[in-house]
Write a structure and sequence with these properties.
Blueprint lengths: L1 H15 L4 H19 L7 H12 L4 H12 L7 E9 L3 E9 L2 H14 L3 E2 L9 E10 L7 H9 L3 E7 L4 E7 L3 H10 L6 E8 L7 H16 L3 E6 L5 H7 L1
Antiparallel strand pairs: 1-2, 1-3, 2-8, 4-6, 4-7, 5-6
Length: 251
């Protein structure tokens, strides 16, 4: 998973520049809204809401903003969001999987299609590329908040379904990966260890990656950035290899 870890590393550093603060807040509010609409506003009985609040805190969302989002979602308003996905190809056969949360499907699909067209990509049929990715739980934890070393942490997390533990030394961040089915078990294990993740989510990890030259890779990442800038887009996953040269060039 080294390639994916590098991409997580890139996103972490770019996020630290505060470039995407507004986008991160929008995404976190939508996660809260969908969680409340799905299972209510009782945090103790709604694990998805607990995760959404935790992730909102992870991007430094103020407490009153979180509370307003929960209150709005709990009210009897007609605003609803739909979760949907889109799949397609960037140039040079790079697969893209895009997860969205939207209140207007027609607007979302039009905007997604426009980005594919502008960047010489191709929007495909749903389900056509899903086999290229594996859904996994990814937990981001600040090492400064963990009192045990990596080996001890790894041994503890195996009981929660740990598949792999990476350490991003420069950022002081642990990334713990679990199978999709073990997401809840890992959440429970971290609670037992009194570890509060900075972020926890289901990601789509590429089963194989494609290597491109530096300039072509930068064009693909520019396309990914355009998708991520869309308000309706929550996550973008791809199967392009993130080389050391690419990391050094864009960070």
């Amino acid at each position: 998973m080294a390639g994916h870890s590098k991409w997580a590393n890139i996103k972490h550093r770019k996020g630290a520049q505060d470039k995407r603060r507004a986008k991160l807040f929008t995404r976190a509010i939508k996660e809260i809204y969908v969680a409340v609409k799905e299972s209510g506003d009782d945090i103790s009985s709604n694990p998805r809401l607990r995760t959404a609040i935790q992730n909102a805190k992870g991007v430094n969302m103020p407490k009153d903003t979180i509370e307003r989002a929960i209150k709005k979602a709990s009210s009897n308003n007609d605003e609803t969001y739909t979760e949907t996905t889109y799949e397609g190809y960037a140039p040079n056969g790079i697969a893209l999987f895009i997860e969205c949360t939207t209140d207007n499907i027609n607007r979302t699909v039009a905007n997604v299609r426009a980005i594919f067209n502008k960047h010489n990509g191709e929007l495909g049929k749903n389900g056509s590329l899903e086999f290229l990715f594996k859904r996994m739980g990814v937990f981001s934890m600040e090492s400064s908040a963990i009192e045990i070393d990596k080996d001890s942490l790894e041994m503890e997390l195996i009981d929660g379904g740990l598949e792999e533990l990476d350490y991003l030394e420069t950022e002081g961040i642990y990334l713990a990966y679990t199978n999709f089915e073990d997401f809840g078990a890992m959440q429970k294990k971290l609670e037992e260890l009194n570890i509060t993740p900075k972020n926890s989510e289901i990601q789509r990890i590429p089963l194989d990656t494609k290597k491109l030259d530096l300039e072509t890779s930068k064009k693909v990442l520019d396309m990914v950035d355009k998708f991520e800038d869309e308000d309706d887009v929550q996550q973008v996953f791809h199967n392009m290899e993130i080389s050391e040269e690419l990391m050094n060039d864009i960070i």
